[in-house]
Every structure is written in C-alpha cells, then in structure tokens.
Amino acid sequence: MMIKIVYNIDMNEIKILPAYDDGVFKAIFTKPESKVALLDIIRAFTGIPVIDAEVKNNERSIENVGDKHIRFDINCKTSDGKLIDIEMQASSMSGDSINNAHEAIRERSVYYEAMLHSSQERPRLYKDQVQSIQLMICNYTVFPDDNILRRFYFTDETGNILSKSMCIIFAELTKIDVNKPIHDMTDLEEWAFYLRYSNNPKYQKAIETLRGEKEAFRMAYNTQIHVSQDEKAQAYYMSRLKYELDEQNRINTWEREKQETFRKALDLGRNEGRNEGIKTEKFTTAYEMLSDGVPIIKITKYTGLTESEIESLKNNPPKQ
Length: 320
Known about the structure:
alpha/beta; six-stranded mixed sheet; two-stranded antiparallel sheet; 8 strands; elongated; disordered N terminus
C-alpha cells in the first residue's frame, strides 16, 4: 500500500499520536512502507550496519503449560542472522522509580533478552550462535547520567567481557538536547528527537527539517500520520492512556494511604509512649510518698492512682 508523502500538517486539524507510545511505535515501524525507517532506526540505536531485516512474529510460542506469552514490540532478524527486539516504554513501569533505580524495567530487559536469545535454533557449535540484541527505548530517565545510550554485556567484576553474543541496549529519549541544531545531531540523536517530539507542535519546524533531509524520517512521519487518522488506533491509544493514568492514580493513592497509615501509627506510638511515661512518673511519685509515710488517701488525691495500685507498690516498687 502506497501512502502519499505529506510535508505540511496543520496541527489544529489532526491530532498526531506520539511515536513514543509502544502501540503507535509498533504500528509505524512494522508496516512494509516503513522498512527504510526501521532499518535506519536499528542502525542508529545499535550501531550495526544493517542491510536488511525481516519483522518476525512478535509473540513467542508457549512451550510449557506454565509459561506465559511474551509479546515483543518489534521482533526482527537481520540479513546476517542477528536477532533484535525493540521495546518502546512510554512511561515507567508500575512501582518503578528513580528511587529504586527502575529495577523492574532493568530486570524485564534481562528476561526479554534471555527469551530472545533462546529463540534461535541450537547451533552445531556454540561459537556459531548468532548475536541477540535487546533494545529498550525509554521515554523517561532510567540511569542518573547524561548518556542517551548504554550497552550491557556479560562481564566479570573487573569489566572483562565474557561474551558479546547477548547484548542489552538502553536508550533514554529524555536526555536529548532540544537546543542542539538538527544538522549537528548524530543519527542516534536525530531519532531520539523524532521519537520524543514528532507529535509536539513546538518542534514541528525541526521535525520538518528531519523529514526534508532523510527519506527514513519522511516514511516514518507519513506512516505516523496514517496511523493517527485510524479510529481504532486512536481508541486504542486513548484506552491505554486512560489505563496508565488510572494506574498512576492508584499508585499515588496507595502511596498517600501508606504515608497516612505510617503517620497515624507514629502518632499513636508517641501518644502511647507519652502516656506510659506519665503513668511511670506517677508510680514513682506515689512510691516515694508512700515511703515517706504519706497516707494512701492523699497519694490517691495527688497522683490520680487507685488505692489498689498504690497498695501494689509496697511489694512491687517501680523500676528506676
């Protein structure tokens, strides 16, 4: 199917869905007419000079009854046999934050990479296994530095690499410098800028520059417009957005309730401790008065303790 090239879009006439949404991202880059864009984005984020790639079934088959479906966003195989899965993460996973170092998304990347690598046929010699690359593109900050891209391999504690047959790459779109001129950006920076801001009216002039300079961006943008005009895609995006907002609201509510419960427990503990301290002081005063021969009836009047409580002090003096 051919799509008419679009150079100028009135942002008031059409709501362009964000390319950083995983559903929209998948819809854009898995279409045959976006092949040029897919190959270019693979080259930019992995550094591999890919000539061609085949988009495969994105759902890994279940081999055991207890298994669950693993659904990749874009699962592809390059012409030289490399396995690449591209995952787009629009927002942090439930319960994940900079406070816990985004443990969930990091562990998820390891699990997905393991599934991807094990999907290849067992080679006759282990040295002949093909490289698998798990690319995690995140529209939020995961690691506390300014690096847009980082690669992970199997290494020992000193950094010596055991093998490069398995690789996990994290790309963080939030770290793109929006003030950097387009013509000074690397291919990686251009794609990071495009994915994060292609639907943002504020940056449309820069997006137009990208589309004018490279066919890959024209193909991606026109497919993105086509997807954005699809009612099913719009409904799917809005339902996902609503779910994420509801989920975030649930987490925020849970956090507030947890903090409120902690505050009440702390106040209760303080009150109980305060009351216990006052009572201990009363027993100490009563014991001293009793030792000085003050009548029990007067001790009761000044301390508020009962006669039986004061009597008990004769055999059980308070601990000092």
